[in-house]
Amino acid sequence: MASTSYNQTPSFSTPAPPTTWDVFLSFRGKDTRYTFTDHLYKALLRTGIRTFKDDPELLSGEVISRALPQAIQESKTYIVVLSENYATSSWCLDELVEILNCYNRMKRLVIPVFY
């Protein structure tokens, strides 16, 4: 006689959207854009890791405000570079909220880097 367990709870999680990016880099531009984050970005690209890093030319309000949440949702992994002024940026905090939402909903990997 086959035994059946009724203690298992079914999983009703929302399916994760398709990913475009392997990694989304979240960082405070004035702290690390041309130093640590730039080196990290180039190293990831050299190894074939599709990495989203905002472009200074995109920082014109509405365009970036739509592009960032979409890029976050379409990323598999998040690297958050927590620098001295990271938390003083509303952009960074908005990114972090979206990253944590994706972590909670889709169990995506978040890697904090304390810079």
TrEMBL record:
Keyword terms: NAD
Regions annotated as coiled coil: none
SUPFAM superfamilies: Toll/Interleukin receptor TIR domain
Domain of life per record: Eukaryota
Biological process (GO), any one: signal transduction
Residue ranges constituting the TIR domain according to the UniProt record: 19-115
Keyword Plastid annotated: no
InterPro entries: TIR_dom (IPR000157), Toll_tir_struct_dom_sf (IPR035897)
Protein name in the entry: TIR domain-containing protein
Lineage: Eukaryota, Viridiplantae, Streptophyta, Embryophyta, Tracheophyta
